[in-house]
Amino acid sequence: MTGDPGAFATYYPTLLRYVGVAVGLGILMYGLYRLLRLAGVKHEPATGFTLVVPWIVGFLIFVTFPIGLSFYLSFTEYNILWDRPKPLADPLFNYKRALSIRIVELPEGERPIQVLGTMEGETPETVRYREIGRFHWRGKEYVIGATDGYFLKGVWLTLRYAVLSVPLGMVGALGVALLLNQNVKGVGFWRTLYYLPAVLPAAAVALLWYWLFAPSSGLVNWFLSPIYRLLDMQPLGWFTDKSLVLPSFIIMGLWGIFGANTVILLAGLKNIPKDLYEAAAIDGAGTFTKFRHITIPMLSPALFYNLVTNTIAALTIFTQQAFIPTDRQDGWFVNWFIYNEAFNFGRMGYASALGWMLALLVILLTLLIFRSSAAWVFYEGARQEAGGA
Amino acid sequence: MTTETRSLRAAEAVYEHPLARRERILRTAHRVIIYILLLIGAAIILVPFLWMVSTSLKTERQLFRYPPEWIPDPIAFNNYIDAWTSLGSIAPGLTFWRIIGNTLFITVLAMFAEMFSAAVVAYGFARFRWKGRDVVFFIMLSTMMIPPTLTRVPSFLIWRELGLLNTYDPLTVPAWFAWGPAYIFLLRQFFLTIPREMEDAAVVDGANTMQIFFYVMLPLVKPAFLAIGVLSFQGNWNNFEAPLIYLNTTQMYPLVLAIRFFQQSLSKEAPKWHYMMAMATMMAAPILLLFFMAQRYFIEGLTVGAVKG
Questions:
Q1: Between A7, A62, A214, which is nearest B98 by CB?
Q2: ipTM confidence
Q3: Which of A327, B13, B182, B240, CA to CA, is 20 to 30 A from A149?
Q4: Which structural domain, as residue segments, surrounds residue B38?
Q5: Using the 8-state DSSP alphabet, how is residue A134 labeled?
């Protein structure tokens, strides 16, 4: 812990640079505009481009450059205490270390760590394969080893979380939005109520649920205690029980995100023209047909938006894991795991490689959703244009 | 409604056809089920909330009482002060005013810069035609897919190279560079809806671009501008990741880090849930207050991307 320089001493240098950057940016924009005009660019394009320049500068400094740097670092070894990265004999070492898996037979009486051995090739340090699982096959015992089982477990946990929590959150939100769309009295009141958890800080939500799920004195177990007595079972351990960590996180996540989805879907429902339903009713369509052929297609852009944002959020869940200490051995959510690799264990090069793999996973899944959207997302505007009248 | 129609209705009710009667009962049952479901949902939302506030007002002995008490007796308002005293005894200088000051300093600076830069950039995207605009806009939107994990390490290195680690700079200054693609997108959608004549009239009156922006356009998109204002306040107030990486002097911590510090230092002994819930309530209170005051803007900001896009 460093000494305390006092509040004022920590505020004013930042304030100076904050104002300085704003002024500098203003001068840059003005100068650029003049230059473009001198070069013969018309007023409209020159102004438009100049106004976007803050974002372009920021994009170059805070997005493009870091992405490039992180790509380079992912092929190096770089401890946080070092001044510069060290090149690796095997440039792909970081990636191999994260993903290497080996399955070997386990003879009677041998210890898995000896059978599994170490990673081959030129490695900067000895990297052992460690057991992540075992299975029997044709009377022999096999052991699965990984060079970084924690990472693989983290990815597995995160993927399961996304695949389970996103659809649940969307279906639940759709249900509530449909309920609220039935000419319910005081829609505004209900909407506010359901949206409430979404505005809370993730940190507060995490602490609150950690307490609600406390095994011996938490509220959830108190509510469930009649059921425990009925079934004659021990109270559930929630966050402390490794098989229940995932469900606990999913329940907490649903409580938090659900309201925001509902508000978006409700706005989408209110946007559907009533005459569509009337026309369908004249044609003799039932409730389900109307739902299937009017509500869902007209709502699909909002559903699509929810799907994309929720998936990205689920794959990069961070704060909740930081406030809820679960066992690293059973897998941490991968974003938090990578943070720890970089800033707790100081492996900046390795963390960059892991960051790239998470980014590729997120981008791949997002693009997949985008590709599939052509089949099920329906844009009213696009239809009108295509129809052409 | 006149007396005549009312009596007619009454007559109808008396001589109701059995089928109509059945339909009426079904419809009522339908309504009742809807409200019951909504109430169950409301309970699921509200009970954790009330539990948070209730716990924050308990003494240590009341915490583990069985069955749980909803309204503690006596009500320990003192927790809200004692939590800070206890935090100050772990890390000297961590006082309530200091931490609130830090949090507000970061939040207000970042919010202000974020709002203005997003508005300027959105204006450039929405109201002017220039070569490559749509490509740049598309790139901007696709940056939403990049997880912060990817830029975390290199950004840290950049700030270290600049000698600005453990200052508030990384949390506030980059906000001038319009770092929120979602905010730009939202404002652009609003700028697009304004008729061109508004600008043309101002040009005829001899206004320059800056004047048009500040006196004509910004007032016209005020709802959207305030919407990103509240979203940005919420985002920066709740932000945990960036302070965690860039700050290490405890006295410089914003609220969220102070809470985490408190939680970690307590983990060895019995967790003081009443203090932690008091802290969590304090952290949530300003956001809830803002939400109730500016609800309209929250909802506007949330729905525009999904519904109007």
A1: A7
A2: 0.89
A3: B240
A4: 3-56
A5: E
